[in-house]
Structure formats: structure tokens, C-alpha cells
Amino acid sequence: MADVPLQGWWARLPVEEEPGSPARRWWYAVLGEAFPAGSVVDHPPGGRPGGWVLAVRTDASGDQVHAVEAALPGVPLLWYVELAEPDAAPPARTLVAFSDDRFPEGTVLTPAQAQVAGVASDQQAAALRWWPDTGLTHQVYVTPRHRRRGLGLKIAMAAYGVQAVRGLPRLHGDGRRTDDGEAWAGALPPWAAWRVAPRSHALPSMTPSA
Length: 210
Hints:
Aminopeptidase; 2 domains; 210 residues; single chain; 4 helices
């Protein structure tokens, strides 16, 4: 994959407006050099651009994300609950991922929607917490029975999309990692690995002791 660009551009589809429904739109992250890295290009309706790696569906303002899909064939289905922590220091957000068929691939629920649906935290497959003001990832966790199946990369891509479509600093990782985190970072594809700094501090495992 040496010839794959490390950065891409965003295709923004027109806002979809239907009577009685909130206006929404799709965004697509595309790995390619057709446009300068980081560009947002208006794309005609009716199809996904070639080379897309990430699709994000938002309301018209971009504030609420309704779905985020990663082009990772063979990786198990994930859907998410997005949690805001405005009173944390610094303010944080968390995506909690679930891997069952209660919701379609990539669905993003609010906490209120998750409560109505009876979603319980002990059913999660993975979670990623980050600081939106800087884009720095705080924690990535995949439950032991879901590891080595690509879920860590998938939830990282989802969080990246959530952050990017809001015009916030791009998601990235510093050098503080557990041994599991270091193994995960070492297996990332080049277009994702460059956003993770070399390991500088070893952190204790997040997996609970038996």
C-alpha cells in the first residue's frame, strides 16, 4: 500500500430535505489526490465517490451525527452511542460500539435513544474516548472477546469522522499506550498509522484482572 496517499479529501453531498423529516446530508472521506488534502468538495447526489473509506451522515448543520460507516470489508458490524462529557476537564466525548443486529451498520444513537432502546453498557464491544477541542485520543478499548477482528481501527475511523465533519481538529494519538495499544498501533495501515505518535510511555493494561 506504499502508493496510497496518507491524507485525503471530503466529498459533501447536497442536503436532503423531505417534508416532515429533518434535513440531512452525507459526507465521504476519500483517499486520493484528485483534490488537495483536507479539501471539502461538493459532490453531486446519487452515488458514493470512488475511493471512499468513510461515510458520515449528519443533520444539515453537522452537529448531530446519525450514521458513520467505514469501508472495512470483513470487519464485524458496529453501531454506536455517542456520549458527550461537557463538564469533564478537558471536555470529552466517547463513542461506545456494539456488535449485534439491533441497529443497522454504522447507526449512531444519542444517549436518550439508547435508553429508550434498552442499550446496556455491559453489552459493548469497544469504546473510544477523546478530547474534541484538540482531537487527542484519550482511550481506546476493545473487549477481549472482540479483539484482533479490526474493531479498534473501525471505531477509530468512526470517531475520526464524527470529529472531522464538525470542523474540529483531526483525531490523533500521542505516545502513551498499553502493550495491547502498541500492538494495535503497529498493525494500522499507513494512512491511519501516521496519526499515532511513536510510543513514549508504557501504560498499564485496561483489561480487568481475572
